[in-house]
Structure formats: structure tokens, C-alpha cells
Amino acid sequence: MRVPRTTLLPICMCGLLAAVLICGLPVRPQITKGCAGINYASADSSNPFTAEYVTTSTVPAAAGAPKISVTREDVARDSEGCIRIERHGVTQPPDDRKTVTLETPEGQPFTVTREEYGTSIQIFDCASGTLVLIQPGMRMATVKTAKNAAPANRVKHAYSTPYIFGAGVKIPPTTIVEQLGTKEIQGITSIGMKTTTLGTEKDGDWNAKPIHEYEIWVSDELAATMMRIDKDLRAGSEGRFELMNIKRENPDPILFEIPKGYETNPTRLPISRNLGVVRPSKE
Predict the structure, then answer these.
(1) What is the pLDDT of residue 197?
(2) What strands, in cross-sheet order, belong to the sheet with 109-113?
(3) Which segments of the chain have a pLDDT < 50?
């Protein structure tokens, strides 16, 4: 089933985070306020691709090597700018079981794998404002649309505009901005910028010293954020966000559809005799 485009859903998106949409109608309404990141930022996001969004978090340990965690999300954008983000490990059963058996509110049992149980898929169309959350573990989909009308016309601009400071932007005295120029990332030309935040008197020994570094690389060519590096210098922690394994091709249209047999916007949720009521994801 293909979800129809209707009214706008104002959702604020940052970086590659977000919700995802479903395309279908030949005429696109105005772009909704708050569309940003991998979606629009009023940029041309009609160039499709599939990729992995890899997040690596490094946190120092009290002793020994730092703790490193890696999460991966499958990302797809079609030629109409619709975004799909698939996450794994969102929820897990309380033990090592390989399958989970649930019951529909009518008492009909069905079994899902551990992987399905922990998978969450978001589909978001920034133009129509349709948000779809697909949960394979519950064989259900939640579709939301906004009630407000579209905002006034928005002028398109380069994707990098909201991320790379231009001339005339007021910079706080405790912030140092470095323009990093361009470089190739995954074979795609990207523009970089780094900001360093200095401590103040309230930071004690860190006064006038760098306490935070933020580096970002964005591509006008792909209309996407290629890399972000966020460092807390006092804590010694780092978050690295990278768009990897990019394929410049239109994704399979079936990825943007609700699978057959899934219930849409159910009024009652599946249950498990062992796990209780299965709560829908809040993403």
C-alpha cells in the first residue's frame, strides 16, 4: 500500500535524523517549515541515493581502553526527495530468544524474528508532511499528517547554506570558526567548517581553553550531510556521524510502501503472553 500525500506535518529535522515520507502524487505542495537535514533545507534533494548512516560514539572509561559503540542505519532518498530510515535494535526482548510470538487484539497469534521485533522504519515526505512509522515486529504502521496548511513560498538555496557560516554572521566571542574548504568524501565534493568553543570563567581551569569542537562536512551536490564530528574536550568523548556506502541510484520503490498485511493506525495493539502489551515506538 502506498500512503497518499495529504496535508503538512511540521517536523523539525536535524542532520540525518528524522522521519520519512511517502511519494505518489504528480504535484508537490509547498515545502513544510522545519524540513532540514537530509530532507530539504529548501535545497534540491531530487538526486536519489541509498547509503548507511554510521554513528560511532567514544566515551572514556575509568580504566583501560575507552568504550566505543557503533550504530548503523539504512538510509534511502528517492528522486522526489522522499526519505526512508531503517533502524535496528530499537527494542529487544528481555532475553536471548530468537523469535517472539504475539497475538492480535482478536487473539490470532503471529511470530516475528528477534530482528523484526527490534526494527523501526520511518518514511517521511517533507513536501506533503506525511510521516509513516513502520514496525515489522508488530506488523503495523502508523501514519500521521498535519492539519495546518502549507507555509508561504520558500526560496531554495544551496544545502550548505544553513550549516556553513557566511560573511556577516555574528560569532560569539567564545567561538572560533574555521572554514575548511572542500574535499572529496566518498567521491563527493563536500564543504567543511569547524567551530571551537572556549570556556569561560564559570568553567574554572578551562577558562579561555577549548572545551568543545564541532566539525561538519556537507555536500551541495548530494544535498546531504556527509560527516559530523562532535567532541567534548573536557569529558574526552566524541561522536562521529558518517554517511557511508553511498550508491547514486533510485532506491526500489517498494521500500517506501507499507508491507501487505500490515494494519494501519490500529486502535488496539498486539500483546504477548510473556512480554505483555507491546508498546509502539515513539520515534
Answers:
(1) 97
(2) 109-113, 99-103, 271-272, 276-277
(3) 1-34, 36-42, 149-150, 152, 277
Residue 187 CA to residue 222 CA, distance in Å, equals 11
Strands 263-264 and 140-144: parallel
- Eight-class DSSP state of 4: P
What totals of helices (H) and strands (E) does the chain contain, helices first? 1, 16
Q: Which of 60, 58, 56 is nearest to 70 (CA)?
A: 56
Residue 215: other Cβ atoms inside 10 A: 17
List, in sequence order, every residue forming a beta bridge with 35; answer none if it has no partner: none
What does the alpha-carbon distance between residue 200 and residue 234 come to, in Å, rounded to a whole number? Answer: 13
Distance CA 20, CA 80 (A): 12
Please give the pLDDT value at position 45. 65
* Cα distance between residue 280 and residue 275, in whole Å: 13
Global confidence as pTM: 0.76
What's residue 154's pLDDT?
53
What letter would DSSP give residue 114? H
Longest dimension (CA), the chain: 64
Cell numbers describing residue 279: 508498546
Amino acid at 199: G
Cell representation of residue 179: 572554514
| Sign (positive or negative) of CA dihedral 88, 126, 12, 2 | negative
Q: Which three cell numbers stand for residue 189?
A: 565534493
Predicted local confidence at residue 124, as pLDDT: 85
Beta-ladder partners of 124? 20, 131
Q: How far apart are CA 258 and CA 139, in angstroms?
A: 10
Chain centroid offset of residue 194 CA = 22
The Cα–Cα gap between 121 and 173 comes to: 42
